[in-house]
Amino acid sequence: MSSLSSAQIQQYKDDGYVAPLDVLSKKEALEIREEIELIEKKWPDELKGLGRNYIHLISCIFDKVSHNPKILDAVESIIGKDILICGTTLFIKNPKEKGFVSFHQDAKYIGLEPHNWVTAWIAVTDTNEENGCMRMWSGSHKHELKYHNQKFDENNLLTRGQTIENVPYNETKPVILKSGQMSLHHPAIVHGSGLNKSNDRRIGFVIQSYIGANVNQVLGKMYVQQARGEDHYKYHEHVERAQELMSQSGIKTRKKANNELSKIFYNGSEKIGKY
């Protein structure tokens, strides 16, 4: 079992996140990177825009990571034993590109209520201040959701370029992870990340999010998998696990899931971004 310790659970409650957590070996992390680069080479359009979402539905490697018992043990410590996987996302910052993530709260536009869910951010490559690691505003999850300005910045990796203005940068803390390590963060914590100023890619695989079975999608429809326990509520559509890379059934399911996700992310918006 890799359940969180009482000290780690307390850190999560106090700060809104916990890190670093050792979940994958260096070899397993490298396998993820190789899978990404294989898909980019053979199917160059598949991971662009909305295609960076629901990758666990088209790849056995990403499916295996999403159902990893070490990760699920840690998640169970926070949201309980009935765990659903309701989405995955890739956050890739290539060197010399200007991709960044503005300070925001995940819960603002995602429609998952109540907030009995957690985001797992897995470092595929080392992530540090040089290459644009996440920064967390500790304790910010304890307050009401903040106003987000929708900027639709060209280089912002978020759907709407949603931005919380005037976040006190000196009060935020870098989440430094080695490849194979993970952070868990609360739906309402304010966080963001800067530019990659290194000479290598910075890759994060994010399970966004693991939700308790009691969590409903109030803005639309989610395609989920049962990761652990039971789903007594039946709020969401359950889908099959990936059987092979880029199977026709996986591609078809992912397309449906991404179409629904786009409706959720842009609910009430007059403009559509590239993600």
What does this molecule look like?
- The protein has 275 residues and is of the alpha+beta class.
- The protein has a single domain (6-265), classed as Jelly Rolls (Sandwich), CATH 2.60.120.
- 24% of the residues lie in helices and 25% in strands.
- The chain is built from six helices and 16 strands.
- The chain has helices spanning 6-15, 26-42, 60-66, 69-79, 107-110, 248-265, and strands at residues 17-22, 83-85, 88-93, 101-104, 112-113, 117-123, 134-137, 149-150, 162-163, 172-174, 181-185, 190-193, 202-212, 216-217, 223-228, 237-238.
- The strands form four sheets. Strands 1, 2, 3, 6, 11, 13, 15 and 16 form an eight-stranded mixed sheet that branches. A four-stranded antiparallel sheet has the order 4-12-7-10, with no helix packed on it. Strands 5-14 form a two-stranded antiparallel ribbon.
- The longest helix is centred in the C-terminal third of the chain and has 18 residues, at 248-265.
- The mean pLDDT is 93.
